[in-house]
Every structure is written in structure tokens, then in C-alpha cells.
Amino acid sequence: MKNRLSLSSRIIIVISSLGMIAVLYLPIWRIELTAPQYPEGLVLQIFAHKIGGAVDIVNGLNHYIGMQTLHTRDFVEFIALPYIIGGFLAIGFLVALFSRKIIFYGWYFLFMLIAFTSMIDFYRWEYNYGHNLDPYAPIQVPGMVYQPPLIGYKQLLNFTAYSVPDSGGWIFIGVGALLTLVLILELRRGKKRSLGFSSSAIPLFLLAGPMVFSGCSSGPEPIHYGQDNCDYCKMGIQDKRFGGEVLTSKGKAYKFDDMHCLLNFMKSEELAKKDMASIYFVDFSGSHQFIKSGESFLLAAETLHSPMGGNMAAFESQDSAKIYQQKFQGQLSTWADLYK
Predict the structure, then answer these.
(1) What pTM was computed for the model?
(2) 261 within some domain
(3) Where on the phi/psi map is residue 27: left (φ > 0), alpha (ψ -120 to 50), or beta?
(4) What percent of the chain has pLDDT over 70?
(5) Are residue 26 and residue 103 in the same domain, yes or no?
(6) What range defines the domain where residue 170 resides?
(7) E strand or H helix at 146, and its extent?
(8) Which 3-state string (H, E, C) describes 9-57?
């Protein structure tokens, strides 16, 4: 029947509903804080019903910069969210039982509403705690705010903050992906429009929900010349022709003013190789854009006079590298040759 869900869709809906049971008990989100005095890191975990992790330690640190202390009892969300999730999964079983497309579409819209509302509320919570500071706090930095990132990486004084989904959050994302799959399958099966949607044109706003959690940007961060410092030698980055970045799997960018510093940083094992997501070099020629290390052509020449004496430049094309090789009388190589 055109208005009923297929058996495969109903099975996926039941699996998705069961998955939401885990979301009730597992941590949904985590904020990781690392600093020289806390090399092992501090972790805050957000559950559907409480805040867990190193709450007491973080509250002690927050006192110095004037942030409010964190207490589960102060958040009405921790009272409402378990009921919202529980109601959602109960409706899921009813959707599978009655097998009506119209009910499924409403249930899917409810899921997207929960996802978007939760992220907006989380951002509001972070904003309030990061901006509403005690004016009499022991440590005050004019103009400084301490709002953690919604998702990804951010530097807060000497603390590095990562905000990412935890195990329950990834299950929630998986549920969203499965429900989107059901939506696609059912719209393709239908020959008529349902709820005003065409089977050949799935509304973008319905598919966008799970993408909110897709992760951090995978590209390099712009280098602010004259402001950023090299993460190895700590010198200010001035010369736009040299240097590069190492990006971690969590989205943090380590910036360098010279290939020499980048290589020494990697050899120092300050960052484990498994945590390195990608490496970029600055193109010596043209507009000095970033190029991926594996796609670059390197030129080593004493006459390049790079900032820290590495005397190595990167190029996007081999032809460009050969032109500068004639000028500087150097030796060409690749990243694979250099970093074995």
C-alpha cells in the first residue's frame, strides 16, 4: 500500500528506537580541557540527566575567571530531556506498529526538532557561561570571554578546549542517519506527493539535521601574519612564503614559520602520529595558498633563506618548482622522500 511503510523501514525504525534507549544512559557530549598544569586533561560529560566528569575541578578553576559554577540542579533541561527522549522512542515503536507514512514523517520532523533545539540550547548555555562573568573575579583579562566551542577546537587562555559528541551523541547521530535513510527510501517508493514533498526532490532542511554533527572543518586555518607564533620555535610568523600547518583529528591547527620547525615538531612526538589528520605547506609562489603535503613539490636550497634556516620551499606544481630550482640552484624532492 502506498501510504504504509515497507517492512525494511519498520525494522530500521525499531532499531533506531532501541538505540535511543542507549542515549538515555550514555554521555551525549563531552568537553575536553587540556593545559600544561593538566596534561592528562579534564573532561566534562553531558548526559541526558546530569553533568558528569571533572565538574568539581572545573568549578574550582571557573571561580578564578568569574564563570558560574556548574550544577545539574541548575538546568531544567536535565529534568525534561529524559522524558523527551523516552517519549520519542515510545512513538517510534508506535510508528513501526501502525506503519503509516504520515506518522513517520511527523516523527522524523520531531527528531530534527529535538536535534536543532538541543544544539541551539547548548550554544545558548555555553554563551551565557562564557560571557556572564563575575566583575570581581581574581583573574580578569579585558575583553576576554570564555565560551567553549559548540563543536571543534578553541584556545581559552592556556587551556585547549575540544567539544565533540560522546558515545551517546554518536548513537544519536546514527539514529538520525538511519531515519534519513528511511525517509529517502519511502519517498522513492511513493508515486505521489506525501505531505507536500516530491519523491524526486527531498527537502534539504530534512537532510541537513544529521549534518549538524558531521564534525569539524578539515581544512587548514588561515595564518595571521604578524600575530600568530610558530608552535615549535615560538617566533612570530612573518614570511608568507614559508611554513605550514599540522591539523589534528580533533581540528586543532599547529602553525609553523619554517619547514624546519614543522619537521622538528613531528620528530618531537609532542603529537602522536595517529592524531595527525593532515599536513599542509604554504606555496612559495603565487598567492601563497596552502597545499597538501602529499601533493607538494619541495625545493631545498641554501639561497632560499627561510626564517629558521630550513631553507626549503613548497610548490603546488612540478613546473613551478623547476622554475625556482633554476633560480636558487637547489634540489627537488617530495614529502614522501623527506618524511619516511
Answers:
(1) 0.63
(2) yes
(3) beta
(4) 91
(5) yes
(6) 7-213
(7) none
(8) HHHHHHHHHHHHHHHHHCCCEEEEEEECCEEEEEEEEECCCCEEECHHH
